[in-house]
Amino acid sequence: MAGSSGATPGAMTPVTPAGSTADSEKNTELQENEKILSQDFLSIDQITDLLKEGDISVIQEKMSVFLNFKNLQTCLRDAILLDYYVSGFFWAKEMDFSLDQYSKFMTLLDMLLHNLQTLHMSLEDSIKWLGEVMAEIGPNRSLKNEGLHVFDVREANAIIDYLKISLFQHYRLYEFMFYSTREEIVIGTEQTIEVVKPADHPFPAPLEEGISLDIFAAFIESSPIPETERKALDQEESPEAQAESEAAEVDPLVGFTIDDVKSALARVTDEVLLNIQKEIKEKLQVQEEAFNARIEKLKKA
């Protein structure tokens, strides 16, 4: 109804005196909104630099530098946030915003995520907060704080529609990104490997993936034999063992000349070739008989 004001009929509406608690809270709220909107998420120089670029990859690279995103290849959260801001920047570019409108819109995008991450605002609270802020930066007939009203009715409605499909529609996913702990994927590891000891040591030190050093030292490693003891052991070997070792070292071809070796190879080669020729002749003879039999059948037919 036109005359409805929400007050009880017949009841007197309390008059709030100037300087009361209600006015102070309202002024504090307005000052807080002004403070939030005055903190530019991107400076005018940064926005101007981004507007000069037409390639999205270049804009993403510069935006990542401005926002200090250094782990885009390994951090999924940074990649999602970069995509969120770049998409909003391109949408504002399609809307043909002014530099001041760019600044307010990008700050609005950042503050919505700040409220979600830091203040744990629910979807309903975020929508309510957006309505309060849009009342400050959107269209308003009053001349008070006129410098804050940088968007007209069409632009304000477009901003709300964009936030509806970009952030609010996927609000649970952004909550999961900020609040849920994710398992860290190990992409590198360090291992310590002992270096090989000098060549005079009988065995190298065990590797990291092998047996422990204590077991190796107790059961496998043997102390090197001094040179004097080694010579004494060589001298104590029996004459028979020395003779066998010397015999093993004798070349079996000793006593044969080159001609002897050639003649032996020629005999072996001749025998092998004769056997091969004999097999080939037998196979040819069998095939010849088979062809003759076929020819006779064809003649009779």
Count of helix runs: 12
Main beta sheet: none
Low-pLDDT ranges = 1-20, 32-36
Instruction: Tell me the strand percentage band.
Output: under 5%
Q: How much helix is in the residues?
A: 55-70%
CA radius of gyration: 47 Å
Q: How many individual β-strands?
A: 0
> What is the overall shape?
elongated
Distance between the termini: 118 Å
What structural class do the secondary elements suggest? Answer: mainly alpha
Taking all residues together, what is the mean pLDDT?
75
Following the backbone from N to C, one meets helices and strands in this order, namely: HHHHHHHHHHHH
Report on the architecture of this protein.
This protein has about 300 residues and is mainly alpha-helical. Helices cover about 60% and strands about 0% of the residues. It is built from twelve helices and no strands. Helix 3 packs across helix 4 and helix 4 packs antiparallel against helix 5. It is elongated. It starts with 20 loop residues before the first helix and ends with a helix. The N terminus is likely disordered.
